Batch of 3 targets.
Target 1
Amino acid sequence: MKAEWYNRKGIRILTHMLIWVIVLTLPYLLVNQHEREHHSSDKIERAFFYLNFYTNFLWIAPFYLNAYFLTPRLFYSKRYALYVAALILLFGIILEIHGFLFTQVFGLPYFSIMGASIFHLPAFLLMVAISTTFRVVLDKMKADTLAQMTQEESLKTELSFLRSQINPHFIFNILNNLVALERMKSEELGPTILKLSGLMQYMLYETDEENVLLTREVEYLQSYIDLQRQRFGEKVDIRVSLEVPGELHEIEPMLLIPFVENAFKHGVGLIDQPAIHINLHTKNKVLYFSVRNKYRDGSSEIKDKTSGIGLANVKRRLNLLYGDQQQLTITRDPDWFAVSLQINLH
């Protein structure tokens, strides 16, 4: 996965450098002109000014040492005694360097280790707190990013698995269509096989994409319905209205076909005047899709082993892909089974 620009190493280094420049120089930039003139007129005061300025740079190394070594190695592993000992040692080293600058570099008299400790301890504790917080927040962000990536990969794997379940179910139904045409000695067998080859090409090659054009999915639905018309002829009242949208909307492939398959699976057979009504249109970038079929009350109790796979999978896929941007309604009355689906295509 390509890193965002703000996560690149060079950008992070420049950001840290800019923050340290601001933190270290801001107090001195805020010193008023009178104080600067006063410092410049007194040699000792000027020496203390520069001593404190350079001493502040000593907090940089302990900050990153604590953030990238002491906190993850000792604090996270609950080795608190060793962690505190390391901090005390680190503070002692800082005092030694400060003492060297005090006496040897700037030539100031009367250095007191106790006075220096009292003076620098609050700044040291603040540095440790900020450094530890920085590390904890950084690790939390990394953990959240990893969890999100893992969840996305898990969803992709689950969606791929759901598609692999749908495809064999669809193939099984289509093969039944071919058998029916062959038994009827229909002249449509040859053209039907060619149409099936087009459907298989779409199903095997184009549905590997995350999304396909809605117009392509509608063409697929229309071809499937045409095959079913050939199979049932005038035995089933099939009414279809598929309005191909002019806009280039996209949709998850093989998302609508399970509803149509279910209608032909349970809407024909031992049913008085079987009928299937299918409608699809878009308005204001919202897809409206409905499938209604007559069914015999109680017939849903007689199911084969694959019955319900399509509808169960498509419900799961809708929740995974569109969340609250979709609304699926399934209703039954004594004569009709109806599915209504709305998807926000934004």
Target 2
Amino acid sequence: MINVGLIGYGYWGRRLARNIAADPRLRLASIIDERQARREEIARQWPGVTVAGSPLDAIGDPSIDAVFVATPVGSHFEIAHAALGAGKHVFVEKPLCTSVEEGERLIELAARKRLVLMVDHTFLMTGSVQKIEELCRSGQLGTISYYDAMRVNLGLFQPDVNVMWDLAPHDLSIMFHLLREEPVHLEANGYCHVNSTVPDIAYLTLYFPSNIVAHLNLSWMSPVKVRRTAIGGSSKMLVWDDLNREERIKIYNSGISFQPEKDREMIIPSYRIGDIASPRVSEREALSAVTEHFAQVVHGETASIMSGEDGLRVVRTLVSAQECLDHNIRTVNERWAGSASAARRVAP
């Protein structure tokens, strides 16, 4: 039995608590939250579980074997580093941390202490992503050429991260898991509508060594919630609509063929339009599979698919994308300001 201390009891912390308690190899021993009202709620909902207000209450408790961190991103490094230093296995809500240096320090400490450091890339445990991985690994899609994802909704505006850091980790973790490579180049654009320093719309384009291009449309400003991904292969293409419970994945036996290079006086493609199939996927709650995976990794039964190194790949990409995003937003704002100034000068 692995005794778990859960730090943070917000939206995700509540879901973690339920799944930790339901896992037969984990024991929810303590829940930490700095807010008095939440501690009172925890005491009512979880009788028998120790309730406290400081992360140090769990980190310093010798009976706690593992710490689950479900706090704002800016606190991830400090809490995880302290927990690893105290000899606890650590599970961190995505993203792992806010900088590459922080991620490298956490990975080094976990390796030195021989402890598990895992990042909550929950989508890797969904039946949909597991089915997509099966299709990719078996070669049924052929050679992958693109990954195109739309992940938009109205809110929820996060207090400590922008839309890219909030939503992009999902698709980045999925892409890196499926493609097993990192981008060689990326571009990022966006805009701040509500808060002048926090982008609420972002567009990322990533280029991979194997000639795959990926595009992410991320927004907190959409009137409708969309969670749709298209993956194009040379043999088949698929669309994953995570909000369509009846047909989450559709596989299209469709594609485009070109004449050989020597015959291309005119590039006239031929189109193949075939059948559409919708395979059944597991509807098990992904977070339940995540907590089970954590217990298996701690017991040395399997290798982690959401390790600290996996989390660092996502952070490294986010940091690079943030630099590009900041530069492009600044450039656009300067040009808008210049255009407005010029318009005032020529106004009658």
Target 3
Amino acid sequence: MALVDIIMPQMGESIAEGTLSKWLKKVGDEVKRDEPIFEISTDKVDAEIPASDAGVIAEILVKEGETVAVQTVVARLETEKGAFVGGEPKVAGPISAGKEPARAAEPVATAAAATSGGPPPKTESTAPPLAARNQSTADASFSPLSHNGASFEERIRTKSSPLVRKMAAEHGFDLSGLRGSGVAGRVTKKDLMGFISEGIPETARTASMHAPSGAGDGSHFPLPEPWPGDRVEPMSKMRALISDHMVASRRTSAHVTSFMEIDLTHVARLRARKRAEFEAATGQKLTYMPFIIASVVQGLKTFPIVNSSVAGKNIIYRRPINIGVAVALDWGLIVPVIKNAENLSLAGITRALNDLAARARSKKLSPEEVQDGTFTITNPGVFGSLMGTPIISQPQVAILGVGAIEKRPKIMPGHDGEDTIAIRTCAYFSISFDHRVIDGAVADQFLAYVRKTIEEYPEGGV
């Protein structure tokens, strides 16, 4: 018999901690290999973590809602059901000579790299008290090993989450000069918010085009107080991150939004004619969105500034076209990314879109699948919204909003020169763009190009 440590996996190179949002199993439950046992949330993705071995949950060490460093032991799995008695695990025997120690479960399609560079600690034949085990695990996982001339403590403190790094840059803070409450003094979002609201010594500030002198020192609105009968609930990890990202984006980019009405009648008829053949050949459901994505890709090739990022006084023109598509979930919003969409046919775009959306709803996405987007499309029209002014997803410079696709009466020129009223399938498209680098004329030209491409979509392109 043996106890297997279940650890908090590292969901991406820059991720140093994760929040255990929900246990899917409880102590005493039997689990199968690769069966999901808990859910985690990071600032990149929510994911279900599967069991690395079959067995019985012997003990749970981390409660729901707790945020812990990667490689932290969150639970232990008894690999022999008969050894589990009365809710307490029996003493595990020593690991057989030459046998690899069991490693923690890792999410599907992503490998969790060990932060310390070493294997997780082995389970000893005599289990020490819980507090001692946790301390031993922390000491083993986060020892100050040298790496490229820097100690682990130095690396982990400067490798805060992308959200914290972005907030620090916006407010002019140098993370290397700060010590937070996280592992090895790592600055967390909560720490940084405290620094922002309370002020910080000038030695920890850096110059920033987004945070000139005095930025972040202004007064804040007082927090509202609950009234009798109100219900107060803490934000979920995902909701809190969305909140921070949206506020940060509005502070970073000079947002402007333009609108155009687009006639999708041609695409609707093309889709009706080709749908059965397309679905039989690919096994994929054909919606309007792949036509829109394909047209946007052509627009980004023609107007590369819309597929760029701003880095101080420099503009980075992205070579790949990675299209993020916002997916609404019952518990929030996530934006999986179709990588290298410029190399995909309509069938390829459809396959990637359907696959990513399905796995987003079932929490099966890996961190890499929600990173490195260069342009985003959001589709509030599926809920009936006619138009909107979406907020740019940093560090991108534009986002396309698709309104409700519906039939409308339109005035059309007749063959005899007289105008006629026709029923057309239309939608309002909006583009929110960063006016620091995209002029209004360029944004409108881009959107007009997308409109023309959709309205004249080639028959052979399906």
